[in-house]
Structures are given as C-alpha cells and as structure tokens.
C-alpha cells in the first residue's frame, strides 16, 4: 500500500490533493478529513470532468459542510462523494479506498 499522508496533515473539515500512486491515473486524489475519518476521491467532477478546485487545496464550502466544484458550483457530501446540488445532482465522485493505520493514510485501491 502506498503511503499518502498523515491524517493530521489535513485540517479537520478540510481537504487536500495528493498525487495518485497509479501511473494510469493522472488526476490527484482528494483526501477529505472529518475528525479521525478520511475519505478519498479522484479529483474529477462528474459533470464536465474538470478538477473541483480552482486554487490549490480549495475544495470546501466556507462552512465546511460540502466539497464544491468551482467550475459550475456542484456540491458533494464529504463522506459519500454524492452530488447533492448543482448540474450533476445524484452523481458521485469516483471513490478511492483509503486505509488508516497509526494516523497514516494509505492508498488501498
Ligand atoms: S464541471 Fe463541476 S459542476 Fe460543472
């Protein structure tokens, strides 16, 4: 398993992008932290396929309730990747399985 980061590298309620360990995936992995839990998604919006962020590691709404695609404003649940508002409502971000051991986050497929 590839080590990606520490849980504590990401501020609680925020998200960061890390290079995908697979050579066949050119998009980053977004890792969202909620307390001690982390969730991983490919940084590709299901609407038009852009990166979600417009600036480095700018993924969250101001209230940290949702991840937002800055291209057309789709909102995603951090713990499911489901789009709950915007042009791709009902679609999902592509999930990346992560495992946490001793505070370290690993890519698990
Ligand atoms: S590309 Fe993300 S909302 Fe359109």
Automatic annotation (TrEMBL):
Signal peptide segment: none
Span of domain Rieske: 2-107
InterPro entries: Rieske_2Fe-2S (IPR017941), Rieske_2Fe-2S_sf (IPR036922)
Keyword flag Oxidoreductase: no
Gene Ontology molecular functions: 2 iron, 2 sulfur cluster binding; metal ion binding
Keyword terms: 2Fe-2S, Iron, Iron-sulfur, Metal-binding
Name used for this protein in its record: Rieske (2Fe-2S) domain protein
Species of origin: Kangiella sediminilitoris
């Amino acid at each position: 398993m590839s080590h990606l980061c520490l849980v504590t590298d990401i501020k609680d309620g925020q998200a960061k992008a890390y290079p995908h360990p697979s050579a066949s995936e050119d998009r980053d992995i977004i890792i969202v932290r909620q307390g001690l839990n982390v969730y991983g998604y490919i940084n590709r919006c299901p609407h038009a396929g852009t990166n979600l962020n417009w600036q480095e590691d700018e993924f969250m709404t101001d209230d940290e309730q949702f991840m937002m695609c800055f291209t057309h404003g789709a909102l995603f649940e951090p713990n499911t990747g489901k789009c709950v508002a915007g042009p791709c409502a009902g679609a999902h971000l592509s999930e990346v399985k992560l495992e946490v051991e001793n505070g370290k986050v690993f890519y698990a497929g």
